[in-house]
Specification:
About 30% of the residues lie in helices and about 30% in strands. The chain is built from 6 helices and 10 strands. Bound molecules: adenosine-5'-triphosphate.
Length: about 230
């Protein structure tokens, strides 16, 4: 399969007062088109830093990141903003929906600026929210709000879907249904999904598992016998 993402010698240092914190310390890995990737690690390992750099929300201190035919670490601020807007769909732990827009408007607001976006209503139908499109976030459950957030990310028709602890605020059953939705979307659209979690039980659903420890890659494992979410318990 064709390579879609490559991290080469990526470091990230934060300076807090006098003490520098090395959030990433020489990170190398690659991801192929269509892969479902789980990035695993303990709290503070550097998972979100990797995801934020990949999504163009943060820049590394040194090293290179390639996505598709672009080196995103060499882009101007304007081009990086375009990359973030056009190529990346984000799903966060706390849905980040706009409270005074209904579900449909939340999705449409995100797709307005995207050239190749998909139809907002179609995607909301796909995530199982046909009857709730006129509801505001406060009228939806956590799982439903996360479905709106996923619809919002997918409707942009991005190159990558990046998910940071997407089930972190959900109960077991709802979390599983959100993971199933992400797995189905990956299978049906062949879009690359990168999911960050501390929950190692989720790993069997991935094509590739990248373990992060103290700002470094501990291991990269290909999973030849990928499991359906329904078959995973934790
Ligand atoms: N803006 C920042 N300023 C200073 N230090 C930071 C900043 N962001 C992250 N760090 C530090 O970098 C390290 C990696 O953080 P990161 O958020 O990537 O970890 P994580 O694996 O995603 O953790 P968690 O699962 O708790 O979210 C941590 O030590 C963190 O305290």
């Amino acid at each position: 399969m064709k390579k879609l993402i490559e991290f080469k010698g990526v470091t990230k240092e934060y300076k807090v007062g006098e003490v520098p914190i090395k959030a990433l310390n020489g990170v190398d890995f690659s991801i192929s088109e269509g892969e479902f990737v789980v990035i695993l690690g303990a709290s503070g390992a550097g998972k979100s830093t990797i995801l934020n750099i990949l999504g163009g929300m943060d820049t590394p201190t040194s090293g290179q990141v390639f996505v598709g035919d672009q080196e995103i670490t060499s882009l101007s601020e304007k081009k990086l903003t375009d990359y973030r807007g056009e190529k990346v769909g984000f799903v966060f732990q706390f849905y980040n929906l706009i409270p005074n827009l209904n579900a449909l408007e939340n999705v449409e607001f995100a797709t307005e600026v995207c050239k190749n976006h998909l139809d907002a209503k179609d995607i909301l139908h796909k995530v199982g929210l046909t009857d709730r499109i006129k509801n505001f976030p406060s009228q939806l459950s956590g799982g439903e709000q996360q479905r709106v957030a996923i619809a919002r990310a997918v409707a942009k028709n991005p190159l990558l879907l990046l998910c940071d602890e997407p089930t972190g605020a959900l109960d077991y059953v709802t979390g599983k249904s959100v993971l199933k939705l992400l797995q189905d979307l990956n299978r049906e659209t062949n879009k690359c999904v990168v999911l960050v979690t501390h929950n190692s039980a989720i790993a069997p659903m991935a094509d590739k598992i990248i373990k992060v420890k103290s700002g470094m890659i501990e291991s990269v494992t290909m999973n030849d016998e990928k499991q359906s979410v329904e078959g995973i318990e934790w």
